[in-house]
Amino acid sequence: MSLTGVLARERLFAVLDRVSGHGDRPAPVALVHAPTGAGKTTLVSSWAARCADRAARGDRTAPLVVVIPLTERHGRPAALSEAVHDAVVAVDGSPLARLVPRPRRTAAPVSPLCLVLDNADVLAGRPAARLLATLARHPSLRLVLAGRTPQPLRPWLRARGRSHEIDVADLAFTEDEAAELLRAHGVALSPEDLAVLRHRTSGLAAGLRLAATSLTGRGAPAARPTTVA
Hints:
By secondary structure, this protein is an alpha/beta fold.
């Protein structure tokens, strides 16, 4: 489990780590898209918390991550620009240090800032897409866009090899992840019942957590297998 009490999904963290320039096949943008209840927000927020912990322990490879929960008002480019500005100020104290290009020979390297835009579905329309494209091209910024549907910018990013994706199939819990989640709730299932539960819930976070809470409510001991009714 992670510091926040959430299951640390290392295989998906590895995909997000590529955005910061580390790991296999780095790219500056990650697209996380899946229906409600699939665990998008939990994933990106727990990854951000892990990056912050790594940085606090002196890991110089840890990216600076700022999560921006978007609302309907951020559908206006001016509001989104303001939110990005505020995020940069919170990290650097001045947006100029990161957003204004410096001479290559004299500038000290600036570690990339990763902006996690959660609920990115509100960023519809061409003006928002143009702003996102500008952010995606910026050398000192990295983006993680999380929403229910793929971003309109997706074809542009894919054609240029500038993105990685996490979709509903990726977010589905593996057998080991589901078993670990249940154990954290004090529930142990037989392999057969675990397979049934994963099938019924499509392996998605909301369904698995609801089932875990229900099974825990039955008073099932952690050391004994529990039958899925």
